[in-house]
Amino acid sequence: MKQNDFRAPEARLVRKIVLIVCAVLLAAFVIAGASSFLYIRSALKPVDPNDRTPVHVSIPIGSSAAAIAEQLEQKRLIKSAAVFRLYVRWKNESGFQAGEYELTRAMPMARIIELLKTGKSLKIGLKLTVPEGSQLVQIADLIAAKTGYKQEQIMKLLNDRAYIERLMKMHPDLLTDDIFRKGIRYPLEGYLFPATYVFADEKPPLSEIIEAMVAKTAAVLDTYKAAMKEKNMSPHQLLTMSSLIEEEATEKADRQKIASVFYNRLHRGMPLQTDPTVLYALGEHKERVLYKDLQVNSPYNTYIHKGLPPGPIANAGVMSIEAALEPAATDYLYFLATPGGEVIFTKTLAEHNREKAKHIGKQ
């Protein structure tokens, strides 16, 4: 047999191996290119299209594009500092202006760059601040006062079943069937996060305002996913408990101790007996809850119904949410807010009544 007869199969094998290696390298190149394209395209988009909360950015004189990129990434205004630098170089962007800026995570990278180049802060058509402890009706009043929409129009959308179901599809982990439980007064009560919101238009669509608030709630609760899972709490349960803490807390109150009282009572099968639920059931604000008020026939009345009320009674802030997830370890079963704002915690009813006679009796 001739030597060439051995080399022919060997040559074919080599060619086959070379073709396979080339094909693999080409595939890897295509996949890497496609992945890079998708990554860069994603990085150019807003961090959160629904988060219009203003984020303050200070750009010192002489800041480089790299330094600006790092600051924007740290504040979660852009997804990638590296992509920002590449985009600026590719577009030959320059002339970033020093100054103070109010930007939002709803802005695409190109819009942020545009503002930083012109030296103009975010154009604010509407600035809306929702205080902690606000109830749905109060938020509707606030929106009406700031925008000119009628309160009835706002409440109608906030209670529109079809609209709420659209929101549920947008935020399935946050808005569940719990918001339609029997006895719920307003499905979105407690789901419009207390924060400051800015909009470019003086009178943006109502849906845009509401969706920004719901999206903020979803974003905040997303940071507590692990804690909620560990405590076996649904978003609805967490927001409900947090709202009770928020409504009972004063500036001097220890929210974690208030939370401990609620949990201690729940574990013992005692009614929560918290006055804000009675006021919510009555639908009015009063300086003092009278004995006759405690008899109001409502699923929100925690004097006659054990356990949590059907849903939140207000919008809770981060401090109350964290207290609901991490209550203090105490034996307290009662607490009392004094006229001076101090909160006194006690273990027995006798102690509670003595403190009540001492402080409330002075009014």
Could you characterize the architecture of this molecule?
The chain is mainly alpha-helical and 363 residues long. The chain has three domains: 55-118, Dna Ligase, domain 1; 126-222, no CATH class; 232-329, no CATH class. 50% of the residues lie in helices and 7% in strands. It contains 14 helices and six strands. The protein has helices spanning 3-44, 65-74, 81-91, 109-118, 136-147, 151-158, 161-170, 206-222, 225-231, 235-248, 255-267, 275-282, 318-325, 349-359, and strands at residues 55-59, 99-103, 126-129, 196-199, 334-337, 343-346. The strands form three sheets. Strands 1-2 form a two-stranded antiparallel sheet. A two-stranded antiparallel sheet has the order 3-4. Strand 5 and strand 6 form a beta hairpin. Helix 5 crosses helix 6. The longest helix is centred in the N-terminal third of the chain and has 42 residues, at 3-44. The radius of gyration is 29 Å and the shape is elongated. The N and C termini lie far apart (117 Å). The mean pLDDT is 86.
Topology:
Elements: H1 3-44, E1 55-59, H2 65-74, H3 81-91, E2 99-103, H4 109-118, E3 126-129, H5 136-147, H6 151-158, H7 161-170, E4 196-199, H8 206-222, H9 225-231, H10 235-248, H11 255-267, H12 275-282, H13 318-325, E5 334-337, E6 343-346, H14 349-359
Antiparallel strand pairs: 1-2, 3-4, 5-6
